[in-house]
Amino acid sequence: MEDKCTMVISGSQLMSYISDFTTLCWFMEPEFQEAVRRLHRVVGNAVVDDRYIVVGTGSTQLYQAALYSLTSPGGPEPVSVVSAAPYYSAYPEETDYLRSRLYKWAGDAYEFDKNGTGPYIEVVNSPNNPDGTLREAVVKNRGDEGKLIHDLAYYWPQYTPIIRPADHDIMTFTFSKSTGHAGSRIGWAVVKDKEVARKMSKFIEMSTLGVSKDSQQRAAKIMGVICDDYKNFKSDELFFEHTRRVMADRWERLRQVVDRNQVFSLPKYPKQYCLFSGELIEPYPGFAWLEAKEEEEEIDSQKVLRGGIKVQGRTGSRFGVAQKYVRVSLLSNEEVFNQFLERLSTINSISNGH
Ligand code: PMP
């Protein structure tokens, strides 16, 4: 992008806590809100008309804000929070970190569907971290006991076909995965209900008294550049086409190595029609979800990678499944990714790692 995304903030700009006291999310920069709505309209991955936008310090803060919003002022028992295994490893940790009396982590959503009782919140992560699948809610709602949070961090065209504009009660997105700017700590929620959005904003007010305006402005700038390029077809290669090509190339090379050494297997993803590109395309998730081919559940694949080739993955048990699974990020820089493939190609048996 060269210097198209460069921005200058002078010493006297963006000093106030307040962005716009007339709106519900008063610490949200109007330029940021506009840029978010525009980006979703360009990509077509979420319905934003007649929806509230809430900005957060990453979608991590918005997850907590959503839990608070859906459970306060609270009843006699904490509300169960569930997600289908394998689930994003931070959900259990974030849910129980403060030992809230409003909500508690209750594990796998399939299990809860069979045996759980009482009010619950299901977190639907689609495409799912760690395994890259497109998902829907799994708990069959009984009356009005269930609420949903859709974590759509990876629902962008470089990772997945855009199969429809998502339209759920609470959807969270993040700058970390849409463009890769994790360090800016910017996320946003698209919310249907005004009261839910108001409570989420209140949570953010209570925890951090707003969200960095410097970061909101930078995010607005970068999203604006991406959208302008789509409007003008000015760039040699547009943003999502470029990033998709990078992901496709990485997956092709990864599959070659994994097929050749026969120690692990990778999930197969069906091609689906993508409304954004107008083509049938394959998902290219941000993680390799590797499963040891040997049958035993006890094989510790994280240990095999670490001990054998000094690659740090995250074990399946952190995601609520067997440790024969391990997740490795594919979103590092090119040099690190190449190193990973080179090392992975030297593993030729599971015992390499022991
Ligand atoms: N949801 C999912 C599924 C993620 O993978 C991540 C980042 N690993 C997050 C939420 C949190 O992202 P952030 O706080 O950077 O927005």
TrEMBL record:
CDD domains: AAT_like (cd00609)
InterPro entries reported for this sequence: Alliinase_C, Ethylene_sulfur-biosynth, PyrdxlP-dep_Trfase, PyrdxlP-dep_Trfase_major, PyrdxlP-dep_Trfase_small
Pfam families for this protein: Alliinase_C
Superkingdom field: Eukaryota
Residue ranges of domain Alliinase C-terminal in the record: 2-347
Gene3D superfamilies in alphabetical order: Aspartate Aminotransferase, domain 1 (3.90.1150.10), Type I PLP-dependent aspartate aminotransferase-like (Major domain) (3.40.640.10)
MF terms (GO), sorted A to Z: carbon-sulfur lyase activity; transaminase activity
Alphabetically ordered keywords of this record: Pyridoxal phosphate
GO BP: any one term: amino acid metabolic process
Subunit architecture: Homodimer.
UniProt record similarity statement: Belongs to the alliinase family.
Record's protein name: PREDICTED: tryptophan
Native source organism of the sequence: Prunus dulcis
